[in-house]
Design a protein that fits this description.
alpha/beta, four-stranded parallel sheet, 11 helices, rod-shaped
Length: about 350
């Protein structure tokens, strides 16, 4: 026997499908968009058994209304779907099981028990299996309780109600439905929350307007400040350039100062050398002056001695002249000549 799992819910919830497939290797998951495909599969495989899972009528109508479909058209479409599904179940009564999408582990176990009894296969859900179950549309969004009430009202009409009852009888397990008072309470609670949210939205919108005004004011201030900032930036850049030029000049002046300082030190050393030479020259000069004074003294003494000698020469010359002019000098002339000749010999 081959087990066909036909999912007509179009839901992303596949936790229950994975849980069912772990119970037997004979499961064949089929993504069948219409009832005709299920009928053709049952006709082609006489030994097969189909488990058809459909979407809850209320949730199916809510989905159609949320898509913007007309309520009458959505209801007529569901009636056609439910009628075709019931006809298929009546035709293959012993070869198929009907059930809405299981939302709990208990619902999944009820569906599996019904299939096991109908097929005689030992199907049992593992105790370790914890199928992931998604919440219904009305539980996911608290703002569509009005849609849920409208869907229940449409399904309570005479024609659709008969189909709903027949579908519940043909389906596995009882589907727990919320009562109208509970839905009305939830709807009013949701509406009150919506009013509060709207008041909060109005408040936030007013705050947003105030913030927008403040933002516009800040933008205007920025529009005035930006040119000033540009001018300030230009002034700072000019000042920076001037500072750099001044620093370069200071650097050059420092280099010149260092050069002059070195030159001054060199001149001071030369001056010290010249001062030493000057002191030596002064000492030499003093020596020369002292020698000159001594020479002048000697010269004066020599002059005095010379005058004395000159006076003596004059005196002697006068005496010699007196002697030569004397009568005795003339008388001894011959004698002197003879003595002179003898000296020469």
């Amino acid at each position: 026997m081959r087990l066909i799992l036909a999912d007509l819910t179009e839901s992303p919830d596949d936790g229950w499908i994975s849980a069912l497939k772990t119970t037997s290797h004979m499961w064949a998951e089929q993504n069948m968009p219409g009832i005709e495909r299920i009928q053709r599969a049952l006709e082609e495989e006489p030994s097969s058994y189909a488990v058809v899972v459909y979407q809850d009528p209320v949730e199916q109508l809510i989905g159609a209304l949320l898509k913007g479909e007309d309520p009458d058209e959505a209801l007529a479409e569901w009636q056609s779907f439910a009628g075709s599904l019931l006809e298929l179940h009546e035709r293959f009564l012993h070869r198929m099981s009907l059930g809405s999408r299981p939302l709990t582990r208990v619902g999944l176990e009820d569906l599996l028990d019904h299939v096991a009894k109908s097929t005689g296969l030992p199907l049992k859900l593992s105790t370790d299996t914890k199928p992931r179950v998604l919440t219904t549309a009305q539980d996911r969004d608290t703002e569509i309780y009005g849609m849920q009430l409208a869907a229940i009202h449409l399904l309570d009409l005479p024609g659709p109600k008969v189909l709903v009852d027949q579908l519940e009888v043909a389906s596995v397990g009882a589907v727990e439905k919320p009562s109208r008072p509970d839905l009305i309470t939830k709807f009013l609670t949701s509406r009150s929350r919506l009013i509060q949210d709207r008041a909060e939205y109005v408040k936030l919108r007013a705050n947003n307007r105030d913030q927008k005004k403040e933002l516009d004011r800040i933008k205007k201030e920025n529009a005035l400040l930006i040119p000033q900032l540009h001018r300030t930036q230009e002034e700072l850049e000019r000042a920076l350039l001037e500072k750099r030029s001044l620093m370069a000049k200071i650097h050059e002046m420092r280099k010149g100062r260092d050069y002059r300082k070195t030159k001054i030190q060199q001149l001071e050393r030369e001056l010290e050398e010249q001062a030493g030479k000057l002191e030596w020259l002064r000492a030499v000069r003093d020596q020369h002056r002292s020698a000159a004074r001594e020479l002048r003294v000697e010269q004066k003494q020599s002059k005095t001695h010379l005058r004395t000698l000159e006076e003596q020469v004059e005196t002697l010359g006068a005496e010699l002249k007196s002697i030569k002019s004397s009568r005795s000098w003339r008388y001894t002339r011959v004698l002197r000549q003879v003595n002179g000749a003898a000296d020469r010999v």
